[in-house]
Design brief:
Radius of gyration: 15 Å
Strand content: under 5%
Largest sheet: none
Number of helices: 9
Number of domains: 1
Distance between the termini: 23 Å
Shape: globular
Amino acid sequence: MNDFERTALDYFEKGYNCSQAVFTTYAKTMGFDEGLALRVATQFGGGARKGEMCGAVSGALMVLGLKYGHDRFGDTDQKSRAYAISEQFMDRFIAENGSVVCRNLLGYDICVPADKLKINELGLFKTVCPKMIASAARILGEMIEEIGE
């Protein structure tokens, strides 16, 4: 386990959500204010509270956007590169975890009351989510190292 994985898991263990954990860990290394990073990522936890895209994945994609995103109108090369980087992250995460969708990763839908009870009963937020956070943080770190800049 690398330092980024440990830091992301520390954020999660302190009570921050999956997206906050991954995004803030990396955003801080790029000079982003910790409080601002935590606020930006808040809404993405639990698949945006709808069991959709895993918050750890959303957090990682936001980091990739900060680092490699496109911000010049008409720069289609940079836009294409940014999208390719996102696709690469998604492909790697899916290959490792089977999905990027929160409800698929948990095996239950956080929006269905009976499923939410089952998730809590089985402790899935404490077993599955840390694995996804560590996976997203590690893949993100590997990609940043591979791409450079």
